[in-house]
Amino acid sequence: MPRRQEHLRAAKILLGHADPLVHRLMDQSMERLGPRYRYVTHNMEYIRAIRQLFGEEAVLEATLHLLQDWGIIEESDYSFGLSRRRPGRTKA
């Protein structure tokens, strides 16, 4: 399961925006419930609540979060958007 920074990076590359609050909400109950937290926040009912609170862009981001957690979208799917600098090279 990707870390929050990875969720944010994927959202920025694939959607053009990244909202840390969406991902914090998706994973907020993990500390209390452990692995079972996904039963609470990783479902369509929760996605509908995100839509009501934050709108359509947040729904896309929450859906992307789910797809990453389920292993359907991996880093290789958006690596085209990752900037990789060669060692020893400086920014011009």
Features:
single chain, 92 residues, mainly alpha, 6 helices, 59% helix, 0% strand, globular
Summarize the structure in words.
59% of the residues lie in helices and 0% in strands. It has one domain. The chain is globular and about 35 Å long. The chain has helices spanning 4-15, 20-27, 30-33, 37-41, 44-54, 56-69.
Q: Which H/E pattern describes the elements?
A: HHHHHH
- Our measurement of the CA-to-CA distance between the termini, rounded to an integer number of angstroms, reads 36 Å
pLDDT average, as an integer?
84
Strand residues, percent:
under 5%
Number of domains: 1
Oligomer: single chain
Instruction: Kindly name the structural category.
Output: mainly alpha
* Tally of helical runs: 6
Largest sheet: none
From the spread of the alpha carbons, the general shape counts as globular
| Helix percentage | 55-70%
Tally of extended strands?
0
Rounded to the nearest angstrom, the radius of gyration is: 15 Å
Which ranges are low-confidence, i.e. pLDDT below 50, for 5 or more consecutive residues?
Answer: none
